[in-house]
Write a structure and sequence with these properties.
The chain has 237 residues and is an alpha+beta fold. It contains three helices and eight strands; from the N terminus they run E-E-H-E-E-H-E-H-E-E-E. Strand 3 and strand 4 form a beta hairpin. The two termini are 49 Å apart.
Protein backbone atom coordinates (compact mmCIF):
# COMPACT_ATOMS: atom_id res chain seq x y z
CA UNK A 1 0.00 0.00 0.00
CA UNK A 2 1.37 3.35 -1.01
CA UNK A 3 1.79 5.74 1.89
CA UNK A 4 1.04 9.41 1.38
CA UNK A 5 4.16 11.51 1.02
CA UNK A 6 5.28 13.33 4.14
CA UNK A 7 4.81 17.07 4.02
CA UNK A 8 8.06 18.96 3.60
CA UNK A 9 9.58 19.97 6.91
CA UNK A 10 11.09 23.33 7.55
CA UNK A 11 14.80 22.94 8.26
CA UNK A 12 15.97 24.20 11.65
CA UNK A 13 18.37 26.50 9.83
CA UNK A 14 18.00 29.17 7.21
CA UNK A 15 18.41 28.90 3.47
CA UNK A 16 19.92 31.37 1.00
CA UNK A 17 16.41 32.38 -0.05
CA UNK A 18 15.04 32.61 3.51
CA UNK A 19 17.84 33.21 5.99
CA UNK A 20 17.20 32.87 9.69
CA UNK A 21 18.21 35.42 12.26
CA UNK A 22 18.54 34.58 15.97
CA UNK A 23 18.78 37.31 18.59
CA UNK A 24 18.52 37.70 22.33
CA UNK A 25 16.34 40.42 23.83
CA UNK A 26 17.11 41.76 27.28
CA UNK A 27 15.55 44.17 29.76
CA UNK A 28 16.80 45.59 33.02
CA UNK A 29 14.49 47.67 35.22
CA UNK A 30 15.28 49.46 38.47
CA UNK A 31 12.08 49.76 40.52
CA UNK A 32 10.91 50.45 44.05
CA UNK A 33 10.26 47.42 46.31
CA UNK A 34 6.69 46.41 47.07
CA UNK A 35 7.12 44.31 50.21
CA UNK A 36 9.51 44.07 53.15
CA UNK A 37 10.04 40.97 55.28
CA UNK A 38 11.28 40.91 58.85
CA UNK A 39 11.92 37.98 61.17
CA UNK A 40 11.21 38.25 64.88
CA UNK A 41 12.82 35.80 67.30
CA UNK A 42 11.71 35.68 70.93
CA UNK A 43 13.91 33.81 73.38
CA UNK A 44 13.60 32.35 76.87
CA UNK A 45 16.17 30.58 78.98
CA UNK A 46 16.01 29.03 82.44
CA UNK A 47 16.75 26.04 84.61
CA UNK A 48 13.11 24.94 84.87
CA UNK A 49 11.40 23.65 81.75
CA UNK A 50 7.89 24.83 82.60
CA UNK A 51 9.03 28.28 83.65
CA UNK A 52 11.08 28.64 80.48
CA UNK A 53 8.11 27.63 78.36
CA UNK A 54 5.83 30.05 80.21
CA UNK A 55 8.29 32.92 79.69
CA UNK A 56 8.58 32.05 76.01
CA UNK A 57 4.80 31.92 75.62
CA UNK A 58 4.34 35.26 77.35
CA UNK A 59 6.96 37.01 75.22
CA UNK A 60 5.53 35.53 72.04
CA UNK A 61 2.06 36.73 73.05
CA UNK A 62 3.45 40.22 73.60
CA UNK A 63 4.98 40.10 70.12
CA UNK A 64 1.74 38.95 68.51
CA UNK A 65 -0.25 41.66 70.30
CA UNK A 66 2.17 44.28 69.03
CA UNK A 67 1.87 42.92 65.49
CA UNK A 68 -1.92 43.07 65.84
CA UNK A 69 -1.71 46.84 66.26
CA UNK A 70 -0.07 47.06 62.81
CA UNK A 71 -2.52 44.73 61.06
CA UNK A 72 -3.24 47.19 58.25
CA UNK A 73 0.46 47.42 57.36
CA UNK A 74 1.15 43.67 57.55
CA UNK A 75 0.30 41.57 54.51
CA UNK A 76 1.14 38.16 56.01
CA UNK A 77 2.61 36.81 59.20
CA UNK A 78 3.46 33.26 60.15
CA UNK A 79 5.32 31.25 62.75
CA UNK A 80 8.26 29.71 60.93
CA UNK A 81 9.88 27.73 63.77
CA UNK A 82 9.63 26.81 67.46
CA UNK A 83 12.32 25.14 69.55
CA UNK A 84 12.73 24.20 73.21
CA UNK A 85 16.14 22.64 73.74
CA UNK A 86 17.49 21.08 76.96
CA UNK A 87 21.18 21.70 77.57
CA UNK A 88 22.94 18.90 79.45
CA UNK A 89 25.78 19.32 81.88
CA UNK A 90 29.20 18.60 80.44
CA UNK A 91 30.43 16.86 83.58
CA UNK A 92 29.34 13.47 84.83
CA UNK A 93 27.83 10.49 83.11
CA UNK A 94 24.21 11.17 83.92
CA UNK A 95 21.79 13.06 81.71
CA UNK A 96 21.38 16.10 83.90
CA UNK A 97 19.78 19.19 82.38
CA UNK A 98 21.41 22.44 83.41
CA UNK A 99 19.22 24.80 81.35
CA UNK A 100 16.43 25.05 78.80
CA UNK A 101 16.60 27.34 75.80
CA UNK A 102 13.47 28.16 73.82
CA UNK A 103 12.89 30.25 70.70
CA UNK A 104 9.93 31.16 68.47
CA UNK A 105 10.50 32.65 65.01
CA UNK A 106 7.81 34.77 63.38
CA UNK A 107 8.04 36.14 59.85
CA UNK A 108 6.04 39.24 58.92
CA UNK A 109 5.62 40.70 55.44
CA UNK A 110 4.75 44.39 55.27
CA UNK A 111 3.40 46.46 52.42
CA UNK A 112 3.23 49.79 54.27
CA UNK A 113 6.80 51.00 54.65
CA UNK A 114 5.77 54.07 56.67
CA UNK A 115 5.05 51.80 59.64
CA UNK A 116 8.13 49.60 59.19
CA UNK A 117 10.62 51.73 61.10
CA UNK A 118 8.33 52.21 64.09
CA UNK A 119 7.34 48.54 64.21
CA UNK A 120 10.89 47.20 64.06
CA UNK A 121 11.96 49.63 66.77
CA UNK A 122 9.14 48.59 69.09
CA UNK A 123 9.82 44.92 68.43
CA UNK A 124 13.55 45.26 69.14
CA UNK A 125 12.66 47.14 72.33
CA UNK A 126 10.87 44.11 73.76
CA UNK A 127 12.33 41.68 76.27
CA UNK A 128 14.80 39.16 74.78
CA UNK A 129 13.56 39.81 71.25
CA UNK A 130 15.68 39.81 68.13
CA UNK A 131 14.66 41.39 64.82
CA UNK A 132 16.33 40.57 61.49
CA UNK A 133 15.64 42.42 58.28
CA UNK A 134 14.19 44.04 56.39
CA UNK A 135 14.50 42.06 53.19
CA UNK A 136 13.06 44.12 50.35
CA UNK A 137 11.36 42.41 47.41
CA UNK A 138 8.69 42.58 44.74
CA UNK A 139 5.44 40.66 44.75
CA UNK A 140 5.50 37.49 42.60
CA UNK A 141 2.78 39.02 40.40
CA UNK A 142 4.37 42.47 40.31
CA UNK A 143 3.66 44.51 37.15
CA UNK A 144 7.41 45.12 37.00
CA UNK A 145 7.99 41.53 35.85
CA UNK A 146 5.45 41.90 33.05
CA UNK A 147 6.94 45.23 32.00
CA UNK A 148 10.43 43.70 31.87
CA UNK A 149 9.24 40.80 29.72
CA UNK A 150 7.52 43.13 27.27
CA UNK A 151 10.61 45.30 27.08
CA UNK A 152 12.79 42.24 26.42
CA UNK A 153 10.55 41.24 23.49
CA UNK A 154 10.69 44.75 22.06
CA UNK A 155 14.47 44.70 22.43
CA UNK A 156 14.68 41.41 20.53
CA UNK A 157 12.58 42.76 17.65
CA UNK A 158 14.60 45.96 17.51
CA UNK A 159 17.89 44.07 17.45
CA UNK A 160 16.68 41.76 14.71
CA UNK A 161 15.55 44.70 12.58
CA UNK A 162 18.89 46.43 13.00
CA UNK A 163 20.81 43.29 11.99
CA UNK A 164 18.58 42.77 8.97
CA UNK A 165 18.87 46.41 7.89
CA UNK A 166 22.65 46.21 8.21
CA UNK A 167 22.52 43.48 5.55
CA UNK A 168 20.14 45.37 3.29
CA UNK A 169 17.26 43.08 4.21
CA UNK A 170 14.12 43.17 6.31
CA UNK A 171 12.31 40.76 8.61
CA UNK A 172 9.67 38.41 7.24
CA UNK A 173 8.26 36.41 10.16
CA UNK A 174 8.82 35.35 13.74
CA UNK A 175 9.73 31.66 13.87
CA UNK A 176 10.26 31.15 17.59
CA UNK A 177 10.17 33.10 20.84
CA UNK A 178 11.53 31.42 23.98
CA UNK A 179 12.10 32.41 27.57
CA UNK A 180 15.65 32.85 28.82
CA UNK A 181 15.99 29.35 30.32
CA UNK A 182 14.16 27.30 27.64
CA UNK A 183 17.15 26.96 25.34
CA UNK A 184 19.68 26.30 28.05
CA UNK A 185 20.76 29.84 28.77
CA UNK A 186 21.65 30.51 32.37
CA UNK A 187 18.86 32.56 33.98
CA UNK A 188 19.40 35.89 35.64
CA UNK A 189 18.07 36.39 39.16
CA UNK A 190 14.55 37.79 39.23
CA UNK A 191 15.61 40.56 41.57
CA UNK A 192 18.68 41.55 43.48
CA UNK A 193 18.65 40.22 47.02
CA UNK A 194 18.72 42.93 49.60
CA UNK A 195 21.23 42.76 52.41
CA UNK A 196 19.21 43.01 55.61
CA UNK A 197 19.77 45.61 58.26
CA UNK A 198 20.17 43.81 61.56
CA UNK A 199 18.33 44.98 64.62
CA UNK A 200 18.64 42.52 67.43
CA UNK A 201 18.53 42.95 71.09
CA UNK A 202 17.21 42.44 74.50
CA UNK A 203 14.66 44.68 76.12
CA UNK A 204 15.15 48.35 76.73
CA UNK A 205 17.03 49.46 79.82
CA UNK A 206 15.04 52.69 80.13
CA UNK A 207 11.27 53.25 80.21
CA UNK A 208 11.39 55.78 77.36
CA UNK A 209 10.37 54.60 73.91
CA UNK A 210 13.27 54.44 71.45
CA UNK A 211 12.96 56.66 68.36
CA UNK A 212 11.69 54.92 65.23
CA UNK A 213 14.36 53.63 62.86
CA UNK A 214 14.70 55.43 59.54
CA UNK A 215 14.78 52.58 57.01
CA UNK A 216 15.34 53.48 53.37
CA UNK A 217 13.81 50.97 50.89
CA UNK A 218 16.34 49.35 48.57
CA UNK A 219 15.41 49.53 44.90
CA UNK A 220 15.04 46.21 43.10
CA UNK A 221 16.65 45.17 39.83
CA UNK A 222 14.36 43.15 37.57
CA UNK A 223 15.78 41.22 34.61
CA UNK A 224 14.08 39.60 31.64
CA UNK A 225 15.57 37.82 28.67
CA UNK A 226 14.11 36.13 25.59
CA UNK A 227 15.53 34.32 22.58
CA UNK A 228 13.87 35.07 19.24
CA UNK A 229 14.29 33.59 15.76
CA UNK A 230 13.13 35.37 12.63
CA UNK A 231 13.21 34.77 8.92
CA UNK A 232 14.31 37.61 6.67
CA UNK A 233 14.72 38.49 3.03
CA UNK A 234 17.99 37.58 1.29
CA UNK A 235 20.76 40.00 2.25
CA UNK A 236 22.30 42.40 -0.24
CA UNK A 237 25.94 41.37 0.03
Amino acid sequence: MTQPPHPPTTPPYGTPDTPRLTVRGEAHLDVDPEIARIQITVTARGTDRRTTLQDLTRRNQDTQKLLDTYAQAIHTRETSAFTLTPHLTTKGRHERVRAYHGTIHTTATLTDFTALGELTTRLADQELTRVDGPWWALRPDSPAHRAARRQAVHDAVQRAREYAEALGAHLLALVELADQDVDGYAPFPAARAAAPARMAFAGATTPETAPALDLEPQRQQVYAQVNARFTMTPPQL
